[in-house]
Amino acid sequence: MSAQLDQLTAQAANDPDSLETKEWLDALEAVIEFEGTDRAHYLLERLVDLARRRGAQMPFSSNTAYVNTIPAHLEEHCPGNLEYEERLRSWMRWNAMAMVVKANRADGDLGGHLSSFASLANVLGIGFNHFWKAPSENHGGDLLYIQGHSSPGVYARAFLEGRLTEEQLLNFRREVDGKGLSSYPHPKLMPGFWQFPTVSMGLGPLMAIYQARFLKYLHARSIADTEARKVWVFCGDGEMDEPESMGAIGMAAREKLDNLVMVVNCNLQRLDGPVRGNGKIIQELEADFRGAGWNVVKVIWGPGWDALLAKDKDGILQRVMMETVDGEYQNYKAKDGAYVRKHFFGKHPELLKMVANMTDDDIWRLTRGGHDPHKIYAAFKNAQENKGSPTVLLVKTVKGFGMGKSGEARNTAHQTKKLDDEAIREMRDRFAIPIPDDKLAEIPFFKPSDDAPEIKYLHERRAALGGYLPSRREQADEKLAVPALETFKAVLEPTAAGREISTTQAYVRVITALLKDKEIGQRIVPILVDESRTFGMEGLFRQIGIFNQQGQLYEPVDKDQVMYYREDKAGQILQEGINEAGGMCSWIAAATSYSSNNRVMIPFYTFYSMFGMQRVGDLVWLAGDIRARGFLMGGTAGRTTLNGEGLQHEDGHSHVIAATVPNCIPYDPTYGHEVAVIIQDGLKRMVEKQEDVFYYITIMNENYEQPGLKPGTEEGILKGMYLLKEGDQNAAHRVQLMGSGTILRESEFAAELLKNDWNVAADVWSCPSLTLLARDGQDADRWNLTHPLEAPRLPYVTQLLKDTQGPIVATTDYMRMFAEQIRAYIPNGRTYKVLGTDGFGRSDSRVKLREFFEVNRYYITVAALKSLAEEGKIPASVVQDAIAKYGIDPNKPNPVTQ
């Protein structure tokens, strides 16, 4: 007997008044029987409260017994035709297996996963057949975040529904020719099918929480009726170790997201082995979620255990269930009934007596709750009807259920994608798949005729729920017009003499104008992560309010101020606190509202650029996959712009990260008029044309005079480069200076130095998007490669520079790699020098930082002169003279290494 059982037995033996104990327990039993569990719960809470107030030490536990939360007598049974549903699940299991195994017999490197769907088949089947509604006239549709590794089973279902063809299944993970199916849920690759990407793991739970809150936001603001809709998210128990999986569960409870259901597939295994071999992952997760305020429903044991638990008058079975660790449970399902009898029931002689009349096969058929349709249905029903809190279903399953010795409950199950002939035969027999022996080697898909009763039933169930899922809307039905560029007149005109503003201030003026627009003003979603005052956006608090479902239950301390902190039930701002990942998930929910809700929303998520692209880079990549549309605004951008904050705050690489996402449109504007032109173009592309792109725009907090928009330069701004200032035509020599962000102004100052000190003319080019210039060049290269008989195309940057004179110097507040993107498209024979801010940031003034990183006006001037010297236009001594004149230390350490 274990130490835990010894302790419990000793406690019973040491009871000083067992008769009194029995009276209390009998009284509680009577309350439960005649007045219900709610009354019993109330009385117990009152008793515990009284004991604590009288000084008793009441140990806290957020765990319940290791049994099903819903007792057998309270289960609501599944109303469906379970015979048909079982056959349909079996066919789906077979087709999912056939799809993956056939793919890997043809090409052993394609991979694929069988075991996750094998464990989830019953759970998904109950949802698809009885709960999940598709969009219809009366319902906006439920939103499904499907566990990524279970995608083969979802494809297998769609195949039986006639939504996917056999050719598509044969091209599983073969997408290049446009006929295949993506490995995981990828809306980018299957835009009409998958609603949401759910890998990398951990991102699904995090996104789902903020998606559920966004549905509440839309409803509170009367933009869409989302009252009846649910967000369902499926994840694995191993996945719950990802910080993102658990990071927002407190917010979900605080916001009372009763439209959210998280289903954790507790098959006790991750890729390498058990999730908690020495512990109990279900109990651990129960404590976490119950402690956070969730409605927790455990589905642990199948119906065969109900009778045994009913016999367990002394609680011995429950104690053994509790003390048995997950590593043991995994082992039981990898062995047989005799092993379970000896190693589980053999832990106590009373348990052996309890199963004495059961055969080893009977014991083996004691299933886990996640494989019983009634247990799952009851749990889903509880989740659907629960009010006031989010629900998590902790569903115990067997990894690789039905895969036999090839993978069932084994450490190798996750990676198993090739089954031998014997394993395939066993699976055929176990699930009664009507395929003859002489066809088994072909592993054929099985699909009965359309008039088969099971197939008719499959279609009837989905018709009753409004249509097929998963299914994704690619365009919103509504058409919205965006304001003309002239709407942003305040930032298009030059600032008055002596008046200075930053691009952040220009952005705030743009968004303020948008909020006033009658057509799209209500669709703007400002998203902030506790930095509103940093960006000068606190004026929006009072103007449009901060969304809070409870409204404002207190009088704000700054109520006497013009820009006081105002929360409102219909507030327009999403204020996420110090939480970049949450801000990004809210942005994704809004940026995909056109698809999820048939409502075009326009999110502007404003953040410290260092804490945006770098911190949530995985979610930014996912935004590309999910075809997000919106604006990411990277504030205080650049390595030398945010003076005083230091290494962890200064961004010199966000644009390098942004360049890796193909449908991200990145800009690093210098002037307010550029910001306005870019945002207005983004609105036209994403709202009017409904293009699947999103914008990353960096903005700075450095104030300077604004030159205003020069008519005719709009195209160059959007393409990424235009001539800002032309140098003196009569100078002896000429150079081309390129730049973006605040460092472009250093190039402008360098042009003055070159003219006044060295009689060198400089043309100054504003380059709001070096990345778009690079992409344009790559596109031209590809065209020229594949069309050798056609007239070659010239990249845009080449067209602009080909008729200019002199070497070219590009300087930015980012790593040299940023401007190096376009080197291949500089006209042949031209010198191209790049200055950038490689290395760690540090705290100092902007002047000192730009000197340290060697991107100030003096270094730009020296670089231009050095380039002229290398071309033989001027003596090298001139460069030395400039170094001395500007006080540059030639022996200064390289900032990259400092």
TrEMBL record:
Transmembrane segments: none annotated. Keywords: Oxidoreductase, Pyruvate, Thiamine pyrophosphate. The keyword Signal does not apply. GO terms for molecular function: pyruvate dehydrogenase (acetyl-transferring) activity. Residues 1-33 form the PH domain. Its EC number is 1.2.4.1. Coiled coil: none annotated. Its cofactor is thiamine diphosphate. The keyword Oxidoreductase applies. Component of the pyruvate dehydrogenase (PDH) complex, that catalyzes the overall conversion of pyruvate to acetyl-CoA and CO(2). This is Pyruvate dehydrogenase E1 component. It comes from Massilia aerilata.
